[in-house]
Amino acid sequence: MRSVYGRFVVRRADFDDPVHRLGALWDVGRPTRSGVSPAPTIHTLRRLFIEGGTVESGEVDEIEPDFEDSLRDEGLLEQVPTGVRATVRISLWRGLVIAHDRPPGVQIPRDIVLRPSPTTRTVATLTVRRRCRRALDVGTGCGALALLAAAHADEVIATDVNPRALWFTELNARINGIENVRCVEGDLFEPVSGESFDLVMGNLPFVQSPDTEFLFRDGARREGRDISETAVVASADALAPDGFATLLVNWLVIDGEAPTAAPLSWVRASGCSGLVLFHSVQSPRTYATNWAHGPDDDVDEWVEYLRSRGAVSVANGAIILHRSKPRKVRSAKMSVSPSGEGGRQVERVLRAPSLDDEAVRSSRPKIVMPYTSTSRVRHDADGRTLRPIEIHLADTAGIAGVVQPVVAEVIDRLDGVLTVGEAIAAQRTASPGTVSPELEAAVVSTVRALVVAGIMEPGESTPSA
Ligand SMILES: C[S@@+](CC[C@H](N)C(=O)[O-])C[C@H]1O[C@@H](n2cnc3c(N)ncnc32)[C@H](O)[C@@H]1O
Q1: What is the per-residue pLDDT across 172-189, written as a single tens digit (0 to 9) for each?
Q2: Mean pLDDT of the chain
Q3: Contact criterion met (CB below 8 Å) for 159 and 131
Q4: Domains of the chain
Q5: Whose CA is nearest to atom 17 of ligand 1?
Q6: 50 against 6, higher pLDDT
Q7: From the CA of 342, how far away is ligand 1's center (Å)?
Q8: Residue 71 is inside which H or E element, if any?
Q9: Which of 4, 88, 225, 281 is the most exposed, fewest CB within 10 Å of its CB?
Q10: Is 168 in contact with 145 (CB distance < 8 Å)?
Q11: With pLDDT > 70 as the criterion, what percentage of the chain qualifies?
Q12: What distance in Å separates the CA atoms of residue 233 and residue 227, rounded to the nearest whole number?
């Protein structure tokens, strides 16, 4: 199978392994022993592993002889009075077959291994994906991010403090026939101390919690730092030159501080370039209500804890570090959810040059395709009004571009062939008297902002004569 990243995906079809056969039977792009899985097979698998139901003893052996015993030996099936039941659930996620714990009842086990969640998706989308040598997924859980990275990294290390998480990650590597993921148990970056990576991914227990009950949620503070800050510092230390780290983070917003003050200070102290993607803030009570779900959790205690630490609100977002020179520290608001290959926009932001006015005028920028834009004309009861245009890329990190109506016609002319200066001249010819020095300045600052937001590529520049 050829990977979109240009090399062969390390996937093997080891049909002697019943766990791999279980994965191949889902038919999500890999060959099965006998081609496409027949409908009764999928029905039985869905019943067991997706719906969590039971099937009669013997039904699994209709898929293939002795399959029930093989999967029972692997700890994936168990006998119950009504028949046979799966001990794990399966989710089909981004072309992978991912096993994880069954949904909990009222009592949530401390070491539960959850399915890939919306936060997993966010990290996956914001990851800068290039062919690379070594990748690290810290706090791997069911291993989803590690297994995705295995398609474009020679070697992936997956770490977790929870041995059950590493059992699932190893299981999922076998299910998907992936051989280049290695699991190491331990606290944060301690198991890979002194090693360096081209890619680091971390969807850690970033929740600002007074508890230490759940491994997936409650990242304990250490040396006066939250787990998010600790992860930023340690990721920076672990990054090889030109390496990228994507981390989901939560932080406290203290009275009188800008909402992004804390993560920007972590990035500045890290020694790396970095992008702070700010998503939203919540009041301590809303935040506590969203996260304090455990049977013993007390929302009032959470609110008191957050207030005692000086929080007026709790913010969430992502930090992407880049070990590069010269250093750039940037921040942007996520106005939509990241989607597609959002890491491409992240990479453009972090590589965007700092352009002075002359460099902007001689650049040949164009908006990255494909994209959608809102209309600049609004028709309502008061008639026709002009409003700012929002540009959203299909492969988006959540950062939108904004173009004021007054500069829209010049920006529309920028196709990667004309320089900004030539586009302004063309506008002057097409609409004499409309191009003022103020409009020229607005075009230049709009292009600069769109390049820094990763919405426009700056293109080749023409040195002035
Ligand atoms: C929110 S879950 C995310 C799992 C997975 N990365 C994903 O995106 O689906 C956080 C994971 O971090 C692990 N974890 C918690 N504390 C840790 C620590 N100190 N060091 C390493 N992993 C930790 C948990 O066991 C859990 O698997």
Answers
A1: 999 999 999 999 999 999
A2: 92
A3: no
A4: 18-89 (no CATH), 96-351 (3.40.50.150), 357-457 (no CATH)
A5: 161
A6: 50
A7: 22
A8: helix 67-73
A9: 4
A10: no
A11: 94
A12: 10
